[in-house]
Amino acid sequence: MRSVLLTGAAGFIGYRTAKLLLEKGYKVIGVDNLNNYYDPKLKEYRLNLLKENRNFKFYRLDIENFEALKVVFEENSFEGIINLAARAGVRYSIENPFVYETTNSLGTLNLLELMKEFGLKKFVLASTSSLYAGQPMPFKEDLPVNTPISPYAASKKAAEVMSYTYHYLYGFDVTVVRYFTVYGPAGRPDMSIFRFIKWIDEGRPVEVYGDGTQSRDFTYVDDIAEGTIRAYETETGYQIINLGGNRPHQLKEVIRLIEEYLGKKAEIIYKPFHKADLKATWADITKAREILGWEPKVPLEEGLRRTVEWHKENRDFLREITLP
What we know:
Layout (H helix, E strand, L loop, with lengths): L2 E5 L4 H12 L3 E6 L7 H11 L5 E5 L5 H10 L4 E4 L6 H6 L1 H22 L3 E7 L22 H20 L2 E7 L2 E2 L8 H10 L4 E4 L5 E2 L2 E2 H13 L4 E6 L5 E2 H12 L5 E4 L14 H7 L7 H14 L1 H5 L5
Parallel strand pairs: 1-2, 1-4, 2-3, 4-5, 5-6, 6-11, 7-10, 8-13
Antiparallel strand pairs: 9-12
Helix pairs in contact: 1-2, 1-8, 3-5, 5-6, 7-9, 7-11, 9-11
Pfam families: GDP_Man_Dehyd
InterPro entries: NAD(P)-bd_dom, NAD(P)-bd_dom_sf
Protein name: NAD-dependent epimerase/dehydratase
């Protein structure tokens, strides 16, 4: 049985990636610190579902803690690492940049150092479309992303660069996957789609930063999980690969579809556009197709329908979830 270390296992993307790995016959060693950036009840919900599988083993720890992380390497045997542990969120990174640097940058360095010590060679790093701020669309991986506009993006860039260094020095096979606005069931409550569904369903005003015409290349979480695993299973040397829906959608369109699926009308409050946000994202996924044989399968309409249905099925639980 193949075995993999998956960090951020109780996170939104981490949970779906772990679930798919288990379905594919992997043993998954999961790591997560279950921090309270957003309501931990959601992380515990995901984690409890994973623990139902006997091939899932979990450690509650922070990848910033080198000595605790080393114990995981000493107690287990695995072939490689998928690093999904990260402090996410552009706006919060401006309020607390230090924790982004320690988790996203130092945490990645800890994993790379332990890979070197224990003789591992495959590393997948989750990165972000936020790096493409100010670049022409559709975003291609070879664009010069040297001017990040948030501490979050800067910390992810640092992790990418350090990963390349270890590829160069020690021959690690490294695949960096840059995610584009991931959404789906059991998603992150700090992200727009989770919040929009909850607000509209509970009859609360929807807060939109900007005029609603800003667009995102929304990508369904199961597609992201599949692309991440393909990145793990593919020898790439060192490659940066976009994983995105390949079709931008305006926030106004997202709200309209949620209204339709919930059968409820939204009251919208428009707020000033945040300077650290991107006005639009759009992934060029040519490399994903050519190197990984991957492209998204779930269109926005279907992905939103599934997400709204999950919300309806879990209304009582979700009323208890507080938004950051």
